[in-house]
Amino acid sequence: MAKYEVVIIGGGPAGLTAGLYTSRSGLKSLLLERGMFGGQIVNAPLVENYPGFPEGISGADLGSLMHQQATKYGLETVTAEVKGVEVTRPYKLITTGGSFEAEAIIIAAGSEYRKLGVPGEETLVGHGVSYCATCDGFFFRGKEVAVVGGGDAAITDALELAQQSSKVYLIHRRDQLRAGQVLQKRALAESKIELVWDTVVEEIIGAELVKALKLRNVKSKRLSTLEVAGVFVAVGLKPNNQPFADAVKLGKTGHIVTDELMATSAKGIFAAGDIRHSSARQIASAVGDGATAALSTFSYLKG
Cβ distance 272 to 279 under 8 Å? Predict the structure, then answer.
């Protein structure tokens, strides 16, 4: 069984920053990532609010640069999913790529897309139901689609889809958007985007492909049908806390509780990024969390 001083779980901005700092500090470090290095940001067509890039940078490029910089200083990376953590020191991590031992752990597993939980959603994923406009928008060129949500992610998806689709219905359960003002102004100025207020999706209709959505107005209770070729779900994220639920204390929302030094309730286990409670859910804050977690880990191991 391979042994490390620190194992980092998650290869998004928080995890990659933590790996950069721990490896530069001379700690034997391993980073485990089940998907793509860079995390959720690889799906962003343009990141405009990360310092140092006044013209913006694509999420894929930013994630790639972070990965290159972290591994430059000796960070080892393995593509594997963590299935469980044995909380006896040294900690043992059971993954799809084998088992590893660590003197300390940094959990930066991030979040995953929250689903609508309506009939037709699961069966039509990949057949008109998508959670990534950047990934799948190309398949809906010239077609009418819907985006569900009212936050930054939903507006960003709608604006991107408007560049390819003939029409974009933006479905939101409230009567005002939660997105930032800059994004809201862009959406309202885009002629291809039509806002559908106070409405939720009751069902996604289709046999082999999405054909329509059954909608319900939350105020009038009126049901209606909206014909679309695809639906992009952007209703938030939920923390990837499953392997750690018995290892560390979780808050009411399922996020990991930490102190200001990113320490969890378990000695030698730290958390950073979106999976942590009170996170700002921004790349810049995730990077800060990762650096703090790495410095706290170093102090813990050498203290």
Answer: no
**Domain boundaries along the sequence of the chain:** 2-113+237-302, 129-233
Given CATH 3.50.50.60, say whether it is the number of domain 2-113+237-302: yes
Q: What is the full DSSP assignment across 43-100?
A: G-S-B-SSTT-TT-B-HHHHHHHHHHHHHHTT-EEEE--EEEEE-SSSEEEEETTEEE
Decide if 136 is catalytic: yes
Q: How far apart are CA 214 and CA 201, in angstroms?
A: 6
Q: Which of 135, 175, 246, 259 is an active site residue?
A: 135
For the domain bounded by 129-233, which CATH number is listed?
3.50.50.60
pLDDT above 90 for 22: yes
Contact 168, 83 (CB under 8 A): no
> Has 175 been annotated as catalytic?
no
Q: How many CA atoms lie within 13 A of 291 on its CB side?
A: 7
Mean pLDDT value of segment 202-218: 97
Counting residues of the chain whose pLDDT is more than 70, the rounded percentage is 100
Kindly report the pTM of this predicted structure.
Answer: 0.77
Q: Is 210 helix (H, G, I), strand (E, B) or coil?
A: coil
The residue among 141, 146, 151 whose CA lies nearest residue 213 is 146
* pLDDT surpassing 80 at residue 43: no
Q: Do 40 and 136 meet the contact criterion of CB atoms below 8 Å apart?
A: no
Q: Report pLDDT digits (tens) over 113-158.
A: 889 999 999 999 989 999 988 878 989 999 999 999 999 989 999 9
- pLDDT at res. 121: 97
**How would you classify residue 274: left for phi > 0, otherwise alpha for psi between -120 and 50, otherwise beta?**
alpha
In the block, tokens 């408007």 appear at 162
Phi, psi of 190, rounded to the nearest 5 degrees: -85, 115
State the sign of the Cα–Cα–Cα–Cα dihedral 227, 232, 237, 240: positive
Strands 91-95 and 199-205: unpaired
Q: What is the Cβ-side half-sphere exposure of residue 185, based on CA atoms within 13 angstroms?
A: 3
